[in-house]
Design brief:
MetI-like fold, two-stranded antiparallel ribbon, 70% helix, 3% strand
């Protein structure tokens, strides 16, 4: 008598297919990265996210005393919506805002441009194997190490009516009064102080360039300018972009140097941070928060455009540039300045 048998699936056939080991390692690395970054994200949320949200919320209100429809005094906060922003762009404070906006942008463009040129020159000098190179590096970095308030007092003494600046040029110029000469004083003092910062970062980039590339270029007859244009600039570009970005963000928030060197309430050097400070000092926290919010948006947009247009992956770009330049180092003899 034949008996029917049924094939039962084995235990191995019931088990789900195992995930590849590589995929599990990647997922585990992502979880570990998220776990390690979570404290930093929490701190940034507390010290950056919350103040930004609180400032925007404050900009929608106005504090102080006012009269209601019945003529009674109303104290405390009053929701005004976007009135503080309307007053900034087209209201009673429009002239002050646009003047400060122009000064802030003007200082940023001029000082960062000068600091970039001078900083790159400083880095090239510090990178050379000259006698007393350690002393040259230390002396160049001294201005950057001085606190900004102390630097402002120092330059205020230099730019006073009977100071060193007027004695050198042989003319009596009122540097610390309102006018274009005050702008020029700020530009000189800011460039003197912070150009070494760019020089320091560019010097770090120069020290990462292999000397074999320069030696191959010299053997093939490349000029000094060709080496600078084809080797130095492409390879220090990531470090230079980071330095310029940091300086741009710093100058956009400029407050202490014009405040100490020239003084408050000077239209020629008044910046966005200064008018925000003045509004807050007069207990007008709503307009002050509106100024701060507009400045934050302005800085964020410029930083995004800077990184987006000039390259965000500076580390990867540095590696690619180094490989490409190393491969083309022997071909520089065909290129002359």
């Amino acid at each position: 008598m034949a008996t029917a048998t049924t094939d039962k699936p084995s235990a191995d056939a019931v088990k789900p297919p195992r995930r590849p080991r590589k995929a599990r390692d990647v997922q585990g690395s992502r979880r570990l990265s998220a776990l390690l970054l979570s404290p930093t994200i929490m701190v940034l949320t507390l010290v950056v996210g919350y103040p930004v949200i609180a400032a925007f919320r404050e900009s929608l209100y106005q504090r102080g005393q006012s009269l209601d429809a019945a003529g009674f005094v109303v104290e405390g906060e009053k929701f005004v919506g976007l009135d503080n922003y309307t007053a900034i762009f087209s209201g009673a404070n429009a002239d002050t805002f646009w003047n400060a906006f122009y000064n802030t942008t003007f200082f940023t463009v001029v000082t960062v441009s000068l600091e970039t040129v001078i900083g790159v020159a400083m880095a090239l000098i510090m990178h050379q194997a000259i006698r007393g190179r350690a002393f040259v590096r230390a002396s160049i970095l001294v201005p950057w190490a001085i606190p900004t308030a102390v630097s402002g007092l120092l330059w205020r003494w230099i730019f006073q009516a009977d100071g060193v600046a007027n004695a050198m040029i042989g003319r009596q110029i009122l540097w610390t009064t309102d006018g274009f000469q005050a702008k020029l004083a700020i530009i000189i003092a800011e460039t003197w102080k912070t150009a070494p910062f760019i020089g320091l970062l560019v010097l770090a980039g120069l020290q990462m360039i292999p000397r074999e590339v320069y030696e191959a270029a010299k053997v093939d007859g490349a000029s000094a300018f060709a080496q600078f244009r084809r080797i130095t600039l492409p390879l220090v570009k990531p470090a230079l972009l980071v330095a310029v970005l940091f300086r741009m963000l710093d100058v956009l928030r400029m407050f202490d140097l014009p405040f100490v060197l020239i003084g408050p309430n000077k239209e020629s050097v008044e910046t966005l941070t200064m008018i925000a400070w003045e509004e807050a000092g007069n207990l007008r926290y709503g307009p002050a928060a509106a100024y701060a919010t507009v400045l934050f948006i302005y800085i964020a947009v410029l930083a995004y455009l800077f990184v987006k247009l000039l390259g965000a992956d500076v580390i990867g770009e540095a590696r690619q540039q180094r490989k490409a330049t190393s491969a083309k180092g022997k071909k520089l003899g065909k290129v002359s300045a």
